[in-house]
Amino acid sequence: MNAGSPRARRQPAGAATKRPSGRSAAAPRLTPSERLMDTAAALFNAHGIRATGIDSILAKAGVARMTLYRNYGNKDGLVRSVLQRESAAWLEWLDRELGSMQGTAHDRLCAYFDLLERWFAQPDFRGCSFINAVAEAPLEGDCVKPIAAAHRQASVAFLVRLLTDAGVPDLADFAEQLVMLADGATVGAMITGDIGLLRRARAAALALMRDAAIDASRAA
Hints:
This protein is mainly alpha-helical. It has a domain of 135 residues: Tetracycline Repressor, domain 2, CATH 1.10.357. α6 packs antiparallel against α7 and α7 packs across α8. The longest helix is centred in the middle third of the chain and has 24 residues. The radius of gyration is 19 Å and the shape is elongated. The N and C termini lie far apart (40 Å). The N terminus is likely disordered.
């Protein structure tokens, strides 16, 4: 829950003031395949994947069924393409906002959670596309779980790069803990509407980083 588009730099769903399909008036006209993917992304975010039928996507996008078959094969192929684009957009967004940020690891960790809070505060916030997709998925043979797992691992890797000078002995494990905190706050905020959960997650993350650094200095 895109990257490298020559037309526009999309944001992940709900992560900024514009949705993935939001474009300026000067943006080039979309191809039928692009309209189909943008429409599917918006409907999946609004209503869920299983509740959104192909007929409604095709009708809203104004494209022929052959566009689906030729470009994506079937609904599973369209779902995979939407989620892969969403993952690329999310990681591009994080990198654009935080990748070149200066300051201490403490500052960068705070900025990461502040950025998530901006996402939580958007009026179309409906949680994480990948958590939602896996929650809808059948137990076996679903197409979304490998994509969601890869997205999660890429998020961990981004945090390792962001916090490389945090003074934490096992940075990969620490990044996993941060993703767990962010995931929990995301689900909690989706259920309760309380974006303050993100601030509590940030406080917990800072405490974890401080304690890990203290333990490392004692062991040195």
